[in-house]
Amino acid sequence: MRRPLGLMIGFLFLASTAFAGNFKGEIIATTVLNSDPTIVSGTMHVEDATDLTFFVTYDETEVGNVVSAAVTLLVSYDGTNFLAANFYDYAGGSTLQTTETLSTDGRYYFVLDPNVPAPYVKVTITGTNTDADDTVAVTCNVFGKQ
């Protein structure tokens, strides 16, 4: 029995999209930034992933200082030498940036500039004005397509 070529191509397309996987992982496990550590970073191999989106959870406890945390994304082609990477954030809309400062509890997301394909990505979160009782708890997860 002969099947039309269009039907076969349509089936192959549906099969390939149905079995396409999602890329996800935790880059930074929940970490409390205080007087030590004041900075946390995590690196992930993302060579086969596209449309990388980073989700950062930020939860501050302020007693005497006004605290915040700066989020930066870096990329590397060898896993050793990292360069600042541009990203889009939800608040900034279509403006590319290299750092986003968080100062209100919540969940934030950032999208890596798709024009910067690199096999390794590093997220760094740096606390400002953190000490023993002025803390910031952060977590970072990444999602994408494979």
According to DSSP, the number of beta strands is 10
What is the 3D shape?
globular
Q: What is the end-to-end distance?
A: 35 Å
What percent strand? over 45%
Unreliable stretches covering 5 or more consecutive residues: 1-19
What are its keywords?
5-stranded antiparallel sheet, 146 residues, 1 helix, Jelly Rolls, mainly beta
Report on this model:
The structure is a single chain. The protein starts with a helix and ends with a strand. The chain contains one helix and ten strands. It has a single domain (21-145), classed as Jelly Rolls. The chain has one helix at 5-18; strands spanning 22-33, 39-45, 50-61, 68-76, 83-84, 87-89, 99-102, 106-112, 120-128, 135-145. A hairpin with a 6-residue loop joins strand 4 and strand 5 (83-84). By secondary structure, it is mostly beta strands. The protein has a five-stranded antiparallel beta sheet with strand order 1-10-3-8-6, with no helix packed on it. Strands 2, 4, 5, 7 and 9 form a five-stranded antiparallel beta sheet that branches.
